[in-house]
Amino acid sequence: MSASPSIAVESLIVRRGGKEVLHGLSFSISRGRVTGLLGPSGCGKTTLMRAIVGVQIVESGGVEVLGEPGGSPPLRARVGYVTQAPSVYGDLSTRENLRYFARVLGVRPGRIDETIATVALGEQAGQVVSSLSGGQRARVSLATALLGEPEVLVLDEPTVGLDPVLRRDLWGTFRSLAAAGTTLLVSSHVMEEAEHCDELLLMRDGELLAAESPEELRERTGRQRLDEAFLALIEERQAR
Question: How far is CA 136 from CA 143, 185, 232, 235, in A?
Fold first, then answer.
């Protein structure tokens, strides 16, 4: 595995609506790892992810993905991005959506069936997407991002609205992808999901409170529960 990071962010500042929403963030993400981006709603997670995939204007600082500036043309086939809202066609079936995106991406034969199996939608392959549940639609969106076998996968709140069994299965999929070499950045506002991650980026109010493993966070704060460790970091910051 290469020693160079998949994602490197340096002194990133972003303004939206005239207000600074990301305050000089710096961190790196290793290849073939699952990194959790965690923090309360409104803390800047989505803005950071948009900056990483190159669809967010930044005021200053830098973002590199796989050694290229974030959002640059060479990355289009190497980075997958799944937004919070499912970005698929509701009047097409699961398989028809994947056929369309497969043509756009020029993926190899057989990749559609592989991807449907990966997201466990075999029984819904012929079903119109508008008739699927919210969780199933989210998995169709994930499938479209997986078609091109991206080296980096950026997922914005992919487990919101899913029942515990589906959440467990989806995290199992993420772990399998990482084991095969994919780098995943997965955002969530549910601290219990931090347990599934190799590394954590903990955010609050546009600032990065920690960039370390769950074990390192426990050791630093003296708390075994990660939600309590996060609260300890917040209290520590407020006491300064």
Answer: 10, 21, 36, 38
